[in-house]
Design brief:
- α7 (258-266) runs parallel beside α8 (284-293) and α9 (358-370) runs antiparallel to α10 (401-411).
- The protein is built from twelve helices and 21 strands.
- It folds into three domains: 10-330, no CATH class; 342-426, Transcriptional regulatory protein pf0864 domain like (Alpha-Beta Plaits); 429-489, no CATH class.
- It has 494 residues and is of the alpha+beta class.
- The strands form eight sheets. The protein has a four-stranded mixed sheet with strand order 6-1-12-11. The chain has a four-stranded antiparallel sheet with strand order 16-17-15-18, covered by helices on one side.
- A hairpin with a 5-residue loop joins β16 (375-382) and β17.
- The longest helix has 22 residues, at 177-198.
Length: 494
């Protein structure tokens, strides 16, 4: 499983109360400030034909939003906007004409989309619904869950690409290493989900809609924008899914569809089902992108919004149909311009182990601490039938939950982990190197109000002890006392 992005740098917050799909996310990132021209130039380097990209402004629920549209030619059209096809129980089928046996007339925009007055008109489509204000929750790429939308005997020129095909396409383009890494991660997440859903080895999974041109473009575009914005952390909030069924290549499936369900389960992504909304809000592409980018679910207690953007979807459901993106910077508490106590939220992960060897426990602790755990330890306990066991406890940042869980599952015999949020108060600290009469020592200096507390680092004291042949506790206290007096006399910690 992926470990998410690094925790430092710019943090992206995605409000997904209307769900998430690839095109919605791309549009939100563009509205956030990603370079549209750079995106188009990079997409042009991919060995793909049969499409063009349009970036426009639309009105969604009275809000001005960005719309990212991958417009396909007639040969590649997959009808992901066709509500009558996707939900035949709710919408009348489109009226077909000789001009367009797919229910679409590909006029100036290949879809007949008119962006005048922030509306997309399908009048030239002979389409049953007008899709006013472009008020749809999703777009072409969304049906990566193998929706091969073939109407009236029409078949695409390909029967789906496998993961190797898609990797070759992406590697042939001029994506930066960072963008390529993100794109490959998203596709691998989808491949894992489809493999599980269809009971096939990952190398034998053929993507119909994810392998389609628009889906490849959407996923590549997400990756290019994220990399270009320098985003290194992503908080996912308010993820909402609808109800009912949707027609896919494999028939009419329940919402969320199997691939989406597998991704949400495998990556432990919290979400909410809104029973009043009949339709699919979370697409497999959207779920995979969220899983690839997500590093946490909890907002900092205090933060500043650096930029915000709205990305529009394309299906008409009983929801706003937008993804809201924000770039934020966490605010640290300050008093009179000086550092004071800091407050943050961490997670406590615990599991009981009555059949795990001491070697495995020791190895697991090392992996947890090396992997970024704030602390990790185990304590003796007694379980049912009075069996001796151990309670493994891990303290970790909220962003590291998945990484810690994977280390525990991979290296112990547990099949379940309890997770508790905890508020933490920590003293501001800095490590200073001090020249003592016994040698150099690193000392951790912590501030508590107007008082400073100094703690020599273990490795420094141990090195002095080894060099001078003295006892640890005696040398520890000597170094501590000397460091406090020295740093105060030099006004370093006063």
């Amino acid at each position: 499983m992926q470990e998410g992005l690094k925790k430092t740098g710019k943090t992206l917050v995605l409000d997904c109360s209307s769900g998430i799909s690839g095109d919605m996310l791309v549009a939100a990132l563009l509205d956030l400030g990603a370079d549209e021209e750079l995106l188009k130039e990079t997409l042009d380097t991919l060995p793909l034909t049969g499409y063009r990209v349009a970036v426009t402004r639309v009105v969604k629920s009275g809000l001005d939003a960005c719309d990212f549209d991958v417009i396909l030619d007639s040969e590649h059209e997959n009808h992901d906007h066709d509500m009558a096809y996707l939900h035949p129980d709710r919408f009348e089928p489109a009226v077909l004409t000789e001009q367009d046996d797919h229910g679409h007339s590909h006029g100036d925009h290949d879809h007949g989309h008119s962006h005048d007055d922030h509306e997309h008109s399908h009048e030239d489509h002979d389409h049953a619904q007008s899709h006013e204000d472009h008020d749809h929750a999703h777009s072409h790429e969304d049906y990566d869950h193998e929706h091969d939308h073939n109407h009236e005997g029409h078949h695409h020129h390909h029967h789906g690409r496998n993961l190797g095909d898609i990797i070759r396409i992406l590697e042939a383009g001029k994506l930066t290493p960072g963008a390529l890494e993100i794109a490959l991660r998203i596709f691998r997440i989808v491949a894992e989900a489809e493999s599980k859903a269809h009971g096939l080895p990952i190398e034998k999974v053929h993507f119909h809609e994810v392998g389609a041109v628009d889906s490849i473009v959407d996923i590549a575009a997400v990756s290019i924008c994220v990399d270009q914005l320098g985003i290194t952390g992503c908080i996912l909030t308010n993820l909402t899914e609808g109800t009912g069924t949707v027609r896919c290549q494999h028939g009419i499936l329940p919402i969320p569809v199997p691939a989406t369900t597998e991704i949400l389960s495998r990556y432990r992504i919290p979400f909410h089902i809104e029973p009043r909304i009949k339709g699919e809000l979370i697409t497999p592409t959207g779920a995979a992108a969220a899983a690839a980018l997500r590093t946490g679910d909890l907002l900092p207690e205090r933060f500043t919004i650096l930029a915000s953007g709205l990305g529009a979807g394309k299906r008409s459901y009983e929801t706003a149909g937008i993804v809201r993106a924000m770039l934020i910077c966490e605010e640290k508490a300050q008093a009179e311009g000086r550092e004071t106590e800091e407050h943050d939220r961490i997670l406590i992960l615990q599991t009981n182990l009555d059949d795990c060897s001491g070697e495995a426990l020791g190895y697991t602790l090392e992996k947890l601490l090396d992997g970024g755990a704030l602390d990790a330890y185990y304590t003796p306990i007694y379980m049912k039938k009075h069996r001796p066991a151990y309670l493994l406890t891990v303290l970790a940042g909220a962003d590291d939950r998945e990484k810690m869980e994977q280390i525990i599952f991979r290296n112990t015999t547990t099949i379940g982990i309890r997770v508790f949020p905890a508020d933490r108060t920590k003293l501001s600290r800095r490590i200073l190197s001090v020249e003592t009469p016994w040698g150099m020592a690193d000392v951790k200096c912590c501030r508590m109000g107007e008082e400073y507390l100094c703690y020599p680092e273990f490795d420094s004291v141990a090195a002095i002890c080894d060099a001078r042949g003295t006892g640890f506790m005696q040398m520890y206290h000597q170094v501590k006392e000397y460091a406090e007096k020295y740093l105060q006399s030099e006004n370093i910690i006063s």
